[in-house]
């Protein structure tokens, strides 16, 4: 057996602290003597000694790692060595004390090998222990007994063991048909037993299995990678998988597997000598690998299990363990995740470089689509095509004109060719040539704007420029947001990727790809806008993020400076600055205000002032929301924005005086009469006379028709409900008609909270004859309308609550839990009172953390304070929610008194804090 008294060099802590071989040997000797002849008792004794040793060793490694939280290599080596010690000691006990064999025959030989990650010597705290028990021929009874006893000991130690018992012929046969097995065998490492048998396997694998199958192995590994990426998502997703995600450890391991298969290397550094990587690229590989392994080890230690998903709550804990601290404007976790995504991007760059080198050696095939659609393109002077990629013919000549650092991206877009990694290397190595003189060069400015405007797919050039550092070099103000994570549940991408996604959506709209889905934005672009202004504003709209100051205000100042430097005309610069300053205005007005109130549209029209700004802001808003994440845009938001755009456009073209309540009321009554043409005149007159003006101004005719039918024969003690799927808004519309009484809104909100409904819009009205009419638009937990077959159950639970058979306040307490992964978010509460945004109502805006039952708690608090709620608009942004209430006091007046406002705010904050305590208990 190997000498276990001395460990390998560069462990995270002294070897003796990890595994005291002499002391453990003595304890095992005592156990063997004490339990001689009792196999079960002996096994328990061995497990007891090794279990204590394993626990103490893990604790020593964890302590050493806590002191040096970035020392990944010494940590993974330490875990590997501790595992080696346990395996070898267990094997020694089994073969010496439990199944001794003084004179083994030739067939009674066994070799124990580590395979997979364990074989590679890379182990996190809870990595699997993958073992291969190798025998020369069929397993003998003795070998079977040894293997069985070994496994029972390891299982009793609660190690997660992956094991196989095979002959050399088995290994060759199974490895020949299964690339996963072949990869595990590629990284086998001899631990103990018959060394000659292990050496024979090594030779047979190399000569009979690996040799001649290089291309098949590479294609299989790349296919695995593509499948994995498709499953895990892009490297920019905000809860990445450290091991399997794009830019994660598995990508680095795949490179090493391919290199080892091809060139028989034992360390990545050898790729430098082979010309596959430069020295700098190897350093990038090593830094990324070390960082990712450190993150994975911390993840395992935090969770106490082998999980690799970096969820929001774990991001905070890992960031703290690694020493990241909050700074002005940004949390430590955001700094940590920015480093994470920059390393993930670097891994992607290294993968491209490595794979192109393989293509150059004709080992890897070109992508099938490239082979099918390849055609010779006439390239501009100074460029050539190598394996379907744009390459530079003469590096020295290329660098004599610094404009070429931008031209190469335009040539890539013009020809449709990907840029060759050698060309990317040259650009990255000479970023220092992009200085103020180049940034202020009119030719460079035109080249950059042409990348945005001329070729139809600017996102491809921007993404590559961003990854190579060219974008930040040409626009230094962009550097702080590169790979910047926004620590919230709303944004699915880093800030830079969000911006590129927005530009991608804009380009797709321009190319007519989204005409059916986005008719308004498509028609605006079809009619013509200033594309320079729109693209530059889109590029810069979030450039002020991550600082102490409001990102819209800071971003507007930065946008003025950058757009002037890009050579835009003074009027264009003003428009870009305005768009960046107010890029959230239309979204906020549509989602946080009641656009049925004419005052909302008038205020928005006054802010926008011109049709040009309205058009540009509408397109920017649509792309901004769609660029947040794949599931952010829906028909609800689309309908709100369309309505606000069309009403504002009419106001700008026809005059603001056209926006008045009286006109809306008259139009609404006329529409109802037309919709109920089968009603007699008396019934119609009764219906149109029973409601106050706000009812006619706040609802569409479809809701007026529903309420007319619900109210027609309703008795004072009855409750009428109509549930219908509103496909245009991606929501279920719930209409209620019942006798009016104080707190009706809160009761309805409680009933809906009890069934788990998310309210996105709500409005209530009182009729002149004492009935309440309330319309709620609700969605299920996934943000979709309720399925038709769920509506009867929904109606039943709501009715029980409204009748008092279920007390919502009591029932909701057991359901308003905030999930653990969401508790890491800090969402400060802001409450504002606005008496200018509506002619009739005070607008109370509550901006706070979202949780189940929040709307009910707020509505109940307002009801207890004798506040009448006319309508509520709910805007949700991940873990943050903005609940906006249009209210009056019990006398029908606005809340002008500062003392009353402060008293209400105090009560609302108490309700929020008490709810959070319940939700996190």
Largest sheet: 8 strands, antiparallel
Oligomer: single chain
Q: What order do the strands of the largest sheet run in, or round the barrel if closed?
A: 8-9-11-10-14-15-13-12
CATH architectural label of the largest domain? Orthogonal Bundle
* CATH C-level label of the largest domain: Mainly Alpha
Q: How much helix, percentage-wise, in residues?
A: 55-70%
Question: What fraction of the residues are assigned to beta strands by DSSP?
Answer: 5-15%
- According to DSSP, the number of beta strands is 15
Report the total helices: 41
Number of domains: 4
- State the distance separating the first and last CA atoms: 53 Å
Return the average pLDDT rounded to an integer: 89
Query: Could you say which structural class the secondary elements and strand pairing correspond to?
Result: alpha+beta
In angstroms, what is the radius of gyration? 34 Å
Quick overview:
With 921 residues, the protein is α+β, with helices and mostly antiparallel strands. The chain has 4 domains: 15-211, Beta Polymerase, domain 2; 231-360, Nucleotidyltransferases  domain 2 (Four Helix Bundle (Hemerythrin (Met), subunit A)); 368-657, cca-adding enzyme, domain 2 (Orthogonal Bundle), CATH 1.10.3090; 661-920, no CATH class. Strand 8 (719-726) and strand 9 form a beta hairpin.
